[in-house]
Structure formats: C-alpha cells, structure tokens
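Ticket #4471: structure output looks truncated?

Reporter: J.K.
Steps to reproduce: submitted the chain below (209 residues) through the standard prediction queue, then opened the result file.
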Amino acid sequence: MEGSSIFKAMNHLKTYFEQAAKIAALMPLPAVEKMVAELVALRERPGRLFFLGVGGSAANCSHAVNDFRKIAGIEAYAPTDNVSELTARTNDEGWPTTFSAWLKVSRAGKGDAIFVMSVGGGDKARNISPNLVEAIDYAAQHGMRILGIVGRDGGETAKKGHAVVLVPTVDPELVTPHTEAFHGVVWHALVSHPKLKQAPNKWESSVRK
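Returned output as attached by the reporter:
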C-alpha cells in the first residue's frame, strides 16, 4: 500500500512538471509582448499600476508590486496590501465594491492601469470574484488600461482587457495551481524584459563583482 502511494505521488510530480513545461512552450508570446508595450507606455506617461487579485492571486499581486516598483520603476499598488481598509470596506460596504471603491478614492483614471491576476478573470453571470468585475467596469468607464494574467477563458478580464495573457489549459483538474504559478513566471519575464528592467537584481549583480 505504501509503495502504491509513493508511486502515485511520483507520478503526480512527473505529470505536473511535464505539464508546466508544456504550458511554458505554449505561452502566447505576442500577448506578452503587447503587455510589455502597454507597460512601457504606462511608465512614460507616467501612470500608476493597480494590481488586483483575490486568494493566492492577492499574494502574487503583493510580490508583483515590489518587482514592478523596484525593478521596472513603475508606480504600483495592490489594495489587498492594506488589510485594514480591505476588511473595513468588506464589513461596511460589501465585498463586490472593495476594489472599485479603492480605485475611486485613489482617483484612478485615464493614464493609469489595472493589472488583474486571477484564475477565472471574474465572472459576472456566475457572481465569481465580483470585486474584480466591478473594478474592471470602473476601469473601463474611467479610461484606464486593463491588463491581466488569467486562466480558463479569461472571464471579464479577457473580454474587456487591452493586453491579457491567457495561461494555456493543459489539464482541467490543475487549472488553478498552474495559472497561479504562471502569474509569477509571466510577471518575472516582464520585469526582466530589456524594455522594462531598470534596476539590476541583487544576486546577479553581486556575483559579477
């Protein structure tokens, strides 16, 4: 029995990493390049970049804010980094408007952009991630650019976005872990892109010395 469990675990790992390699090979590079162009233009305007995500994607947003600010020199924020405001708005006003209300107070508008990190991208009909849907609608109404890295069919993000990377689905049973993992792969590709990278990475620059 123990041997069978070990075999299943090893088989899962082999399959998982083979699928990750397949996703990397299938990544829509023109969509990533389009996102690079959007981000270069955003920095030159200059505009602000608001990262939006829930669950594991919220943690990815926090990490991305650091990288885009420090490495790419883009003014970036994530509403989920302020847990006090997030929970106050959820408690007092409801979950759906947590992001759109934050954008409103930030006076986000033409010249700025939102960057959605999500598995489904927000689904209005099924009421999935309604705060993403409300934020996307706010962005569209106020002339903001809409970027995103999403999975499945991309939801509202893909429908209304200007530059959206759709992570290829290779296994319907593993859409969430693969999509959230490739959030990181794609944004690291962006901040290390020659057109966006402005600051060296600490480890690489230390080794060269």
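Triage note (M.O.): checked the attachment and the full token line is present. Residues 2-26 form the longest helix (25 residues).
Status: closed, working as intended.
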